[in-house]
Design a protein that fits this description.
Layout: E1 3-7, H1 11-23, H2 25-33, H3 47-50, H4 53-69, E2 72-76, H5 83-92, E3 99-103, H6 109-119, E4 124-129, H7 136-153, E5 161-165, H8 170-178, E6 181-184, H9 198-206, H10 211-225, H11 234-247, E7 252-257, H12 263-277, E8 285-290, H13 298-304, E9 309-316, H14 342-357, E10 363-368, H15 373-394, H16 402-415
Parallel strand pairs: 2-3, 2-4, 4-5, 5-6, 7-8, 7-9, 9-10
Antiparallel strand pairs: 1-10
Length: about 425
Amino acid sequence: MLKLTLYNPQKKIVRELEQSMKKNEKLLLTVQKGEAQYANSLGWLDTGKWADAKTVEFIEKLAETIRKDADIFVLIGVGGSNNAARSVIEALQKDGSPEILYSGNTLSPYALTRMLKKLEGKSVYIDCIAKNFETLEPGSSFRIIRKFLYKQYGQDAARRIIATGTRGSSLEKLCTDNGYTFVDFPPDIGGRYTAITNVGLLPMAVAGISIRELIQGAGDMQRSLRTEGTTSNSAYRYACLKHIFYNNGYKIEMLSSFEPQFRWFNKWWIQLFAESGGKDNKGIFPVAGEFSEELHSVGQFIQDGEPVIFETFLTTEKQTDSLIIDSDGKNDNFDYLNGKDFHDINQAAYTATIKAHSEKLPCMTIQIDRVDAYQFGQLFYFFQFACYLFCRLMGVNPFDQPGVEAYKKWMFEALGKN
C-alpha cells in the first residue's frame, strides 16, 4: 500500500499538521461520503460505477479486436482525455502491442504531418475522446485522420473509428450517422478524473495493460481512503501538508522522481492539480522534476534560489531491473563503480538529493511498491481523492475549470466561429 512520509520534519510543521488534521476532521468525513453540491462531478469516487464487470468485459473485447488487426492505434484527445492513459501506456507497454500514437493535443502542422506520415501503409484504428465535442484540438485532428482513413480504406474505415463521448452529443450523432463505434464518456466525471473509466481504460487495454489490475489497485485505495480516520488517512495527510506549506509561503510543488517511467504520469498529476486548484487567485503551481537529469539545471534553483518550492518525491520500494557496471579495462577514473548495480547508484543519488534539498525546503515522499498497473491504479485514486480534499481546504471548486475556457472566446473569434 502507498506510504506517505514527511522527510526530516520540523517541529513547527508537525504541530501545524496535527492542528489542521484535527480542525478539518468534519471535512474529511464529508468528502468521504461525497458532497451533494458536487454530485454531477463525483462519478469517479466509486470506482465500481464506471469500471464494473460488464464495462471491463466490453472494453477487453473491443481492445482485443483492435489488437488483432492494428499496427497503430491513434488516441485523439487533449488533457484529461489522454493524460491518464498515456502515463500508463508509456510506462508499461510491452513489445508486440499496437504502436500507440497521440493526436488531438496540438495544433502544430509539423507535428500533425509527421503523425500522418507514420500511418502510411499501416493498419490503423483510432479513438477520438471528447466529452465536449467543441474542443478545437481533438476535433480538428479527428477530421484530418478520418479523411486519411477513408482515403486508405474506403467505407471499411468506419469499423476502424471509435469515439468516446457523452450520450446525446454531436459526437454520438456523428457516430450513429456514419457507423462508428461509440463508447460512453461518463457524464458525471470531468476529464482529469477519468483514469478508471472507458476514457482511460480502453486505450490502456489496447496497449496490452492489465486494466483489471489497475482497477483493483484503485478500488483498494478507495476502500482505504473512504474509511480511514484522520490519523491514518494518507491522502488527507497529504492534502493538509500541501495546505500548510501554501500558508507558509510555498507556492510551488515539485513532484520529483528518479524513475523515467513516471514522465507522463507527471503530466497527468500537473493537470489534475493545476486545473482543479488554480482558481480565485489561489493555488499551488505544480511542476515536475525528472531526476537525475534536472539536478543539473533546476537543482541549482532548488538549492540556491528563492525558497518558494516544496518537493514531493515519488519513489518505489522494490527493484525491478538490474544492470551491473563492470570494468572495460580502460582508465576512465570510474573504477569506484565496478560491480555496482545502476539501481543502487540511482538510489544513492535519490538519498543524497532528498537529504540536500530538505535542508532548504520541505520534502515528503510517496512510496509505492513497484511500477505496475496495480500501483498506477493506487496512485490515480490517491491523488484524485487528495486533490478533492486539498481544493476544499483552499475553498475552491475542485471540478470546474473556468480559466480553461477563457482563451477559447478569442480563439474562436479569430477563426470565424459563430
